[in-house]
Amino acid sequence: MLVPEGIESLNGSMMAIPVLLMGGIAFFVIERVLGLRRRESPQLMGMVLDYVPEAVALGGLMALGSPVAALLAVLVGLQNIPEGFNAYRELYAQYCSPVKTMAIMKSLVALGPIAGLSGYFFLGEHRYVLGLIMLFSSGGILYLVFQDIAPQSRLKKHWAPPLGAVVGFCVVLFSQMVLEAYG
Predict the structure, then answer these.
(1) Could you report the per-residue pLDDT of 43-57, keeping only the tens digit for each?
(2) 62: nearest Cα among 138, 104, 4, 120
């Protein structure tokens, strides 16, 4: 839902492709930086990094009166339930304390409403910016999804399959946009 809405917000502009690609690359860079510092928590990172832009986008879509905003909110909520559960398990494995784990999870709760209200009040009249956020977030989500489901085989460059998926998605998106423009 974020990709079609983002493209529509950009009036079908090809700008959608580099923005989506930048989202995937940005999430890759964040993951690499956290991994180098041995603070890698991919489930928690994925949950937070896609939760905040989704909430901003939802707030903006609500302000615009988008007919798909309610459906998107339900879908995002359903997607975030297993992410939250997996992030909890990941943190629990690191800290072995349910109290500390819940304290960290509770500290993140306010991010969603703050992001949603920001989108509602500041992006309701800026459809183009909202589209950029949705597409950037989509690229990051795509990277994280493939990072989670890519084979767990021992690859020196374990980030290559998820980045390849983002690039592949962009190629398909480009092809579809060209066909729609000239077909």
Answers:
(1) 777 777 778 888 888
(2) 120
The structure tokens 């489930």 sit at 43
Cβ-based neighbour number of residue 157 at 10 Å: 7
The b/e string for 71-90 (b: 16+ C-beta within 10 A; e otherwise) is: ebbeebeebbeebbebbbeb
Measure the CA–CA gap between 101 and 90, rounded to whole angstroms. 9
Amino acid at 71: L
Q: In angstroms, rounded to a whole number, what is the distance separating the alpha carbons of residues 12 and 151?
A: 34
| 8 A C-beta contact, residue 48 and residue 135 | no
Structure tokens at 178: 């060209």
Please tell me what DSSP assigns to residue 153: S
What gap in Å lies between CA 178 and CA 110, rounded to an integer?
A: 41
Residue labelled with tokens 């903006």 = 60
Cα–Cα dist 93/121, whole Å? 38
Say what the pTM is. Answer: 0.81
Alpha-carbon span 156 to 144, nearest angstrom: 18
CB 116 within 8 A of CB 77: no
